[in-house]
Amino acid sequence: MSRISIDDLGDLQRAVMETLWERGEASVHQVRDSLGDRKKLAYTTILTTLQKLEKLGWLDHRAEGKSYVYFPTRSREQAGAGSVKRFLTRVFDGDAVAMFQHLIREGDLSEDDLREVRKMIEGKRKEMRK
Predict the structure, then answer these.
(1) pTM of the predicted structure, to 2 decimals
(2) CA–CA separation, 90 vs 33, rounded Å?
(3) Which residues, listed in sequence order, are joined to residue 70 by a DSSP beta bridge?
């Protein structure tokens, strides 16, 4: 499986991945219909994009009648984790605390957001005590 990052995919490839993560699986026609708000893309454009994503290890397929149904081989969370790690290393020299400090200082966090962060920290502390 290729180690290409979600950040390295093109706009259409990322849009196709988003569609498949939302739907779980889809045929070429279903992906094309889901991307309908974009300019009308040719069936072959979507098919080629799906095939390239499959070669890169992002998708797999199964036959269903005369069509293929494509599905992701990585979750959205798995794809995002690598991007966050690379960002953390590149921007904050791997210092997660510095990143969190920046996000809290500069972020537009609501009371609900802060409660959620506190709950996550408390959950992590409990996990570490086990």
Answers:
(1) 0.72
(2) 37
(3) 26, 61
Using DSSP's 3-state secondary structure scheme, residue 130 falls into coil
pLDDT tens for each residue of 92-108: 999 999 998 998 899 89
In sequence order, what are the beta bridge partners of 61? 70
Amino acid sitting at position 82: G
Domains and CATH numbers, the chain: 6-72 (1.10.10.10), 76-129 (no CATH)
Over the stretch 41-56, which tens digit does the pLDDT of each residue have?
A: 899 999 999 999 999 9
Taking Cα atoms as reference points, which of 69, 58, 75, 73 lies closest to residue 26? 69
Q: Which long-range contacts (CB under 8 A, 24 or more apart) does 12-18 make?
A: 12/41, 12/45, 12/49, 13/49, 13/52, 13/53, 13/58, 16/46, 16/49, 16/50, 16/53, 17/53, 17/58, 17/72, 17/79
Residue 36 has pLDDT above 60, yes or no: yes
Radius of gyration of the chain (CA): 19
